[in-house]
Amino acid sequence: MTTHVTIIGAGLGGLTLARVLHVNGIPATVYEAEASPMSRLQGGMLDIHDYNGQLALKAADLMDEFRSIILEGRQATRVINWDGTVLMEEPDDGTGGRPEVQRGELRQILLDSLPDGTVRWGHKVSGTRTLDDGRHEVAFADGSVVVTDLLVGADGAWSRVRPLLSDATPEYFGRSFVETYLYESESRHPVAARTVGGGSLFVLAPGEEANGKWIGAHRERGETLHAYVILAKPEEWFASIDFTDSAAATARIAAEFDGWAPEITALITDTDTAPVLRPLNWLPIGHRWDRVPGVTLLGDAAHLSPPDGEGANLAMQDGAELALAIAAHPDDIEAALTSYEEALFPRSAAASTAAVAVNEAMGQMLIDGLDHGERGERSERSA
Ligand SMILES: Cc1cc2nc3c(=O)[nH]c(=O)nc-3n(C[C@H](O)[C@H](O)[C@H](O)COP(=O)(O)OP(=O)(O)OC[C@H]3O[C@@H](n4cnc5c(N)ncnc54)[C@H](O)[C@@H]3O)c2cc1C
Description:
Its main location: cytoplasm. Keywords: Cytoplasm, FAD, Flavoprotein, Monooxygenase, NADP, Nucleotide-binding, Oxidoreductase. It is an enzyme of class 1 (oxidoreductase). The chain contains 13 helices and 17 strands. The protein has 383 residues and is α/β, with parallel strands linked by helices. It has two domains: 5-66 and 103-170 and 284-359, FAD/NAD(P)-binding domain; 171-282, D-Amino Acid Oxidase, Chain A, domain 2. It has a seven-stranded mixed beta sheet with strand order 5-4-13-14-15-12-16, sandwiched between helices. A five-stranded parallel beta sheet has the order 7-2-1-11-17, covered by helices on one side. A three-stranded antiparallel beta sheet has the order 8-9-10, with no helix packed on it. Helix 11 (311-328) packs antiparallel against helix 12. The chain starts with a strand and ends in a 9-residue tail after the last helix. The structure holds flavin-adenine dinucleotide. Residues 8-14, 31-34, 46, 124-125, 154-156, 160, 177, 278, 299-301, 307, 309-313, 315 line the site of flavin-adenine dinucleotide.
């Protein structure tokens, strides 16, 4: 009889796993803490790569649906200096391998592709344990429990499944993002809109500061500008800011960018929402575990890293590869999990190493890239 797969977490990784299992005729149930798909804004734009995220969508048989939500023109990239000097300008000529989509729309495609009832909303896992017979029990906050032969933790950074496999817990990476949103930018924030351009923007801080301080921004669907301010500061520094006082928090973050070109600081000062603090956490590079029968992890639960544009892609790749491994070994779950993890561990260690390097030396990497012939019109102003 086919093993029923119990998945914790309806993020992109867990849903891709459920979908590729479904395509291969294997039943699964996904337990998700949030009350409904609409509980929370699903975050910004994601570039989905032809070497991992898109391969997962192919395995999920969802490429047509994926193409229908691609935001045209958003692979355009600008790099500018803190004073507004344009360092690099790359248009989207339609040949790039990293089309951009809204995370919420991608998640909806996956949800729509699953049989009704696959996702059980409002099921927050409070704990997990291994039973004497080797199966696993999952306890939910409402007091209910399920017992399963095959449990997959796709429940992100603070996974409740991970303790069955490893003692590792995420630690602060020493940097945080502060996110802002500027809506209807063409009419309401035209200077900021010109500064961001058609797709993605990176703004470099002067000199040595550039590695731990930069601003990124995306032009999302509906002319929304979504900016990410990156600051290498301890958690205590952010804790001293009252993020419930939107005006004061905005002013405090903007003060870090005193002297920068006003078209850049407008991405902070003109925000239409309260600034959102996102501390970056990570698991040790090379996080792995010994095989425990009937349970495994994927995505951030397995290899949380500072963001470098790969995390969601990797979570989807993990989900697809785990499903394909289970489909390839329908009568031998341990062989499936062993083959999945043998590929997962080195892949995630390499990805985490790259993510840490990018986050520790973002400015230098961009400058090196520019010095290798990608420099554009240096003397132009950004807006
Ligand atoms: C600021 C920022 C920007 C990023 N930008 C990018 C980017 O541009 N491109 C990219 O590829 N990646 C990006 N990432 C990384 C990416 O968001 C993650 O790597 C990716 O979402 C991981 O997917 P996942 O399915 O493993 O986990 P998640 O997306 O975290 O999904 C986990 C799911 O499990 C649920 N859950 C959690 N706990 C429980 C529980 N106890 N019980 C039941 N359900 C639970 C959650 O509600 C959630 O739905 C970014 C990350 C950050 C912080």
